[in-house]
Amino acid sequence: MGNKYVAAFDQGTTSSRTILFDEKGKIAASAQAEFPQIYPKPGWVEHDPKEILSSQLHSFRRALKAGGIAPDEVAAIGIANQRETTLVWDKFTGKPVYNAIVWQCRRTSAYCEALKARHGKFIYERTGLQPDAYFSASKIRWILDNVPFARERAEKGALLFGTIDTYLLWHLTRGRVHATDFTNASRTMLFNIHTLQWDEELCRLFGVPMSMLPEVKASGADYGHAAAEILGAEIPLCAAVGDQQSALFGQFCTQPGDVKNTYGTGCFLLANTGRNAACSENGLITTLTASLEKPDYALEGSVFVAGAAVQWLRDGLGLVSTASETEALALSVPDTGGVSFVPAFVGLGAPHWDPECRGLLCGITRGATRAHIVRAVLESIALQVFDVVHAMEQDLRHTITRLSADGGASANNFLMQFQADILGVPVVRPAVMETTAFGAACLAGLYSGFYTDIASLRDAVGESRTFRPVCDEAWRVEKLRDWENALRRTMYRVR
Q1: 244, 259, 276, 298: least surrounded by Cβ within 10 Å?
Q2: Which pLDDT does position 494 carry in this prediction?
């Protein structure tokens, strides 16, 4: 059979998905498989590596079945993955020595705070990152220091490290490929984003043997072939990319000044800065963009909890049975009734970087209803994004006049309209909101020759919906004042 599709493996924080795109960039079939979240202690988050791998393979097989597609009709596979999540496994058996430590996990926050005081400037200059438990390096160190015999085995060259893309590539190729791309490497706190090499001094600082580290390539590149006995055909693996950089590429934000925000488990705002590695004075980080050659730079602000707060409404409080209910509930009341919510379940990310504070629901009166709480939770997502946009404008020294939006929560029209209102700028949502998967598919398709150029793909995406601000400045000022009060209460600690 001829090659008719390119597949995107979208391996996320709560689920693994496969989306198959045709020659025109349209979705031909998709499937999703959720997997359990593991919370061993407060602030700790883990995944079972076997669940990650099996859920991704299961979603691929289901997507093929749903579309009536044969494995040998797939021209190439691109992998987009949750970044920073850390795995260490045996080089010879492929068996993980510990669960995957998820990007959200805060177990190493005390170590990172001490590290920041002594080495923060050095780390930022090399990596563009603020020392934080969010990134991979301290997670690797924790595994080596806390899993019996792990450090000894690592120093003997018997253990490998990888983010999720690397782990999937290694298993799909039966251990023949141990590699990652620039975007994922740039999130480890071990990679020099200026030399585009693993940094020997950083590896010594974190106690990570360099023999553990994967080869680093462009996002669109030759990553080997998936074994036929695993996927049903020997399919070329032509892209690996961190999910947020994949979404930036999928939104066609390839020019300096382009800005997008992904509303997923967390929120991730990226601004393409071209060949300029912008230095942030406002708590943002510098990272690398997806490319087929040498990467550009981007400024990024990460909000740790966004869609995860809606999951909490559903699974933790039982206030809704599905995420889609939240839009109607939020619109059923004119405002939050004075209720404010700060979703600092695992601390606050950019631009505050407070790992110790925790979530806060305040302003509750006898008149507060579940609709008010739901609305406050949705508003908190957009308000966190406002803080990042404001910090980004200060660093870039110009006003952001348009925000491209994607991710699961961007389907919520109330949230998108509130975001436009609080920012005071248009928010644009593409017709195909699966931009993370689309970015990985574009990279794989372009590298393999399945797609010819970006311009034709941009045309294929189709019309977008634009949410324009309708609220006045007085409303915005009052809303932001209430948010700032809630933030102060959240971050207040008795000394």
Answers
A1: 276
A2: 46
Residues found in the chain: 495
Residues 97, 212, 447, CA angle at the centre, nearest 5°? 110
| C-beta separation of 276 from 194 below 8 A | no
Q: Are 4 and 445 in contact (CB under 8 A)?
A: no
pTM: 0.84
Helix (H, G, I), strand (E, B) or coil at 179: strand
Residue in the structure block whose two tokens are 């120093």: 155
Q: Is the residue at 438 inside a domain?
A: no
* Torsion of the alpha carbons at 67, 69, 75 and 79, rounded to the nearest 10: 50
pLDDT tens sequence across 19-72: 999 988 889 999 999 899 999 998 899 999 999 999 999 999 999 999 999 999
Q: In this structure, are residues 340 and 486 in contact, taking their beta carbons and an 8 Å threshold?
A: yes
Structure tokens at 326: 């939240």
What does the block give as tokens for 77? 């596979």
Pairs from 48-55 (Cβ < 8 Å, separation ≥ 24): 48/99, 48/100, 49/87, 49/89, 49/96, 49/99, 49/100, 49/167, 52/11, 52/16, 52/100, 52/164, 52/167, 52/168, 53/167, 53/168, 53/171, 55/15, 55/16
Which tens digits make up the pLDDT trace of 159-171?
999 999 999 999 9
Check whether residue 225 and residue 357 sit in a common domain. Answer: no
The confidence score (pLDDT) of residue 241 equals 97
Token duo for residue 163: 């983010």
CA distances from 440 to 106, 158, 210, 426 (A): 29, 31, 28, 26
Amino acid at 418: F
What pLDDT is stored for residue 493 in this prediction?
Answer: 58
Assess if residue 401 is contained within a domain: yes
Are residues 303 and 388 in contact, defined by beta-carbon separation less than 8 angstroms?
A: yes
Distance CA 13, CA 262 (A): 14
Q: What is the extent of the structural domain holding 77? A: 5-243
Domain contains 453: no
In a domain, 178, yes or no: yes
pLDDT at 304 over 70: yes
Mean pLDDT, range 216-238, rounded to an integer: 96
Residues 6+ apart with CB under 8 A from 68: none
SS3 at position 314 = helix
C-alpha dihedral over 348, 350, 353, 356, to 10 degrees? 10
CB atoms within 10 A of CB 459: 10
State the CB neighbour count (10 A cutoff) for residue 359.
17
Residue of 122, 111, 126 whose CA lies nearest to 355: 111
User: How many domains does the structure of the chain reveal?
Assistant: 2
